[in-house]
Amino acid sequence: MWSKSDSVSRCLSALLLAGSLSSPSGGLGVAGAKHIMIPSTSFESQANFDADWNYNYPWGTDHNGAARMAKGQVALSGGAGAGTVTLTARKVTGEKPATHGGKQIAIKYLSGAVHAKEHFNVSRGGGYDFAGEFRATTVRGTWPAFWLTAVNGWPPEVDMAEWKGSGKISFNTFNTSSSVRARDVAYSDAASFHKILCEIRDENGRDVSAKFYMDGKLIDTQYGKGYVGQPLYL
Known about the structure:
Elements: E1 2-3, E2 8-19, E3 35-36, H1 46-52, E4 53-55, E5 67-69, E6 74-77, E7 84-88, E8 90-91, E9 98-100, E10 103-105, E11 109-111, E12 114-116, E13 127-136, E14 144-150, E15 157-162, E16 168-174, E17 180-186, E18 194-202, E19 208-214, E20 217-224, E21 232-233
Parallel strand pairs: 5-11
Antiparallel strand pairs: 1-14, 2-3, 2-7, 2-13, 4-12, 6-7, 8-11, 9-10, 13-18, 14-15, 14-21, 15-16, 16-17, 18-19, 19-20
InterPro entries: Beta-glucanase-like, ConA-like_dom_sf
Protein name: Glycoside hydrolase family 16 protein
Organism: Lasiosphaeria ovina
């Protein structure tokens, strides 16, 4: 989870990840799953957080936007049964520019990002459920995201939920930079928490399916070519 620009993004009850076998669709449950990789208690204390998460992006503090990630922009609250992580952006001046794709990008904000210590690799016959409850802004200039991206090269990338400042929420799967399945839908009541679930499954030993749910409703089903066996950052 990271807040890519001027935004506040929160995830309640942490992240539930179910590995190996399929679990029932349409909810946050993981019945039938073999292993919970990140428990729902991982935001309840600093010790719990440190066991499963790191700060910033997996590759550092900068990416492709006007925000630089900083540990100080990440806060834990809520305690037992209500653990919440809050990512907050604040405007800054005087920061050294970021470099992305050979171009310099002016840094206008410090923001927060966290990534899982674990890598996620869909094996033959396997899959994962990625789930959480989020409150994210959709105002112009913001870009919170809950996503998977390749450890080695790019793609794969699955945007399990992305709020790009348009008033909508996006669900995307990249096969190449020009071959992407994207679904944008209206995102009402941004002041409330919403349940996001993405079920990723091996389809044929090479490709994966990704089913995207919001508040228990199936929004879209997409496919990633050659994703099986490819390690992913969360």
